[in-house]
Amino acid sequence: ELAFLASQVAHDTCGQYENIYACHYNIECIWCAQPDGSGRCANWTSSPRAGEKCDSLAGCSGHRTRGLCNVDTSCKWCTSLEQGWPFCSNVTQDVSCSAHCTKSVEHGAPVELRLRGGSQFMI
User: How far apart are CA 61 and CA 91, in angstroms?
Assistant: First the structure.
C-alpha cells in the first residue's frame, strides 16, 4: 500500500536545475532565493524554507499549467520570446514585445482580440 501511494506522488524534477534561468524553463518549478544570493529550484507546490523568498504564485502567475491558466478568464498562457519560459499572465497585460500568448477556447473561455488602432472585441 505504501508503494502504491509513493508511486502516486509526482516526481520533483526541479531540484536538478542549478540556476534561476534553467529553473524557469520548467513551468512547474519556482526559484527560491536566500538573502545571500544563493538559491534553489523547487516544485511550485513546495513551501519556502526559512529565510527564502520564492517566485510569487499570486494571481495568474499562480497558475502553473496551461489548463489552469486558460480556465481562468482573466489569464492567458504565454511563452517568453527571449528565454522561452512558459508563464501565465493577466489578459489585460500587454506582453506582446516580450512574449507570445494564446488563450485557448477549448474551455469555453472568451478570447479578447485587440486590433491595431485600439479596437477590441470578444469571441
Answer: 12
Helical segments of 9-116, H only = 20-23, 66-71
The amino acid at 64: R
Beta strand spans in 1-123 (E)? 29-33, 39-43, 53-54, 75-80, 86-90, 99-102, 112-114, 120-122
Q: Which one, of 74, 76, 119, lies nearest residue 100 by Cα? A: 76
Distance CA 57, CA 40 (A): 16
Strand partners, 11: none
pLDDT tens, position by position, 101-120: 987 544 444 445 555 555 55
Across the beta sheet with 29-33, the strand order is: 39-43, 29-33, 53-54
What is the CA angle 20-23-25, rounded to 5?
Answer: 115
Q: Is 54 in contact with 113 (CB distance < 8 Å)?
A: no
pTM of the full predicted structure? 0.60
